[in-house]
Design brief:
alpha/beta, 12 helices
Length: 261
C-alpha cells in the first residue's frame, strides 16, 4: 500500500516493506514503483525496502517542466527523513541511477552502497541530448506512438517474444505517465552532469549491473566505466530492462550486493 508525504506542494508517494537495513529502489524513465514487484518480496525478507514514485511518474505530482536529477534526489531525501532512515543502499535503474548519483553527490554520508542498474555515471553525449530535445517537441501530439517506440528499443530482440506479457504490463504503466512528467524528466536527463567522480571517489560499496545486449548503453563503455570508477561489474545476458529480462539472476546479484555491504 502506498503512503505519501508533501514536498514543495506536491504529494510524493512511496511504499515501505520489511525490516532491516534500508534499501531504496529507484526506477527508470516512464516507469513507476510497480516495476519492482518481482524484486520487493525477496529483498524485503531481510531488509527494509523503500520504493518511491518520482516526480511526474506513478502517482506523484509534477512540480514544473524540468525535473533535475538534484530535485529528484531531494525527494528521495524527504522520504528518508519522514521514515527516519539515516543510511541506505540505493539501487537505481536507468534514470534511477542518475538520481542515485545525484543523491550520492549531495548526501554521501547517507549512502552505504550504490548500484547502477542499466545506468551510467556519464552524461549524455551530443547525439542523445539532441534526441531528447526532439522527443520533447514531438511528444505533445504523438504521446502513445513515442512511448511505444521508446519501449520497443529497450529490450534485446529475443526478449520481446519471451517476455511479451511483462513488457505489455510495463508499457501500460508507461502510458499512464503525464506528458508534463515525460517532458520534465527528459529535460532533466539532458542537462544532467557527468558524475564519474562521484562513483570513483565514493567510499560506499559500488556495483554496475550491465546488460550485454543493452541497446541504450554501450557494453564496452560500461565495462570501461566500472574499471575506471573502481566499481564491481556484473554482466547479465540481455538488454536494458534487466528487472524484466533477467529478474531471477538480478535478484541473486542484488541480494549478494546488499549482504556484503
Amino acid at each position: 500500500m502506498q503512503k505519501s508525504i508533501n514536498f514543495k506542494n506536491a504529494k510524493i508517494f512511496y511504499t515501505d516493506h520489511g525490516k532491516g537495513a534500508a534499501v531504496v529502489l529507484i526506477y527508470g524513465f516512464l516507469e513507476n514503483s510497480t516495476m519492482w514487484q518481482k524484486i520487493i518480496t525477496p529483498l524485503s525478507k531481510k531488509n527494509r525496502v523503500i520504493t518511491i514514485d518520482l516526480l511526474g511518474h506513478g502517482n506523484t505530482d509534477c512540480i514544473g517542466y524540468v525535473h533535475t536529477m538534484e530535485i529528484f534526489a531531494e525527494t528521495i531525501l524527504a522520504v528518508l527523513k519522514a521514515l527516519k532512515i539515516r543510511k541506505c543502499t540505493l539501487i537505481g535503474h536507468s534514470l534511477g541511477g542518475y538520481v542515485a548519483l545525484a543523491f550520492a553527490e549531495k548526501y554521501s554520508e547517507k549512502i552505504k552502497g550504490l548500484c547502477l542498474l542499466n545506468a551510467t555515471s556519464n552524461e549524455d553525449d551530443a547525439e542523445r541530448k539532441q534526441l531528447r530535445v526532439r522527443a520533447n517537441k514531438m511528444i505533445v501530439n504523438n504521446f502513445k506512438q513515442m512511448v511505444n517506440m521508446s519501449f520497443a528499443n529497450l529490450f534485446a530482440s529475443e526478449s520481446k517474444i519471451l517476455f511479451k506479457e511483462e513488457i505489455n504490463f510495463a508499457l501500460t504503466e508507461a502510458l499512464k505517465t503525464p506528458i508534463q512528467g515525460y517532458i520534465a524528466a527528459q529535460e532533466g536527463m539532458r542537462i544532467r552532469l557527468n558524475r564519474n567522480h562521484v562513483l570513483a571517489n565514493g567510499s560506499f560499496k559500488k556495483l554496475i549491473v550491465i546488460g550485454e545486449k543493452d541497446p541504450v548503453l554501450d557494453f564496452k563503455l560500461s565495462i570501461k566505466e566500472a574499471k575506471e570508477t573502481g566499481s564491481e561489474a556484473v554482466v547479465l545476458p540481455n538488454g536494458h530492462m534487466s528487472h524484466i529480462e533477467n529478474s531471477d539472476e538480478l535478484i541473486v546479484v542484488l541480494k549478494k550486493f546488499i549482504k556484503n555491504i
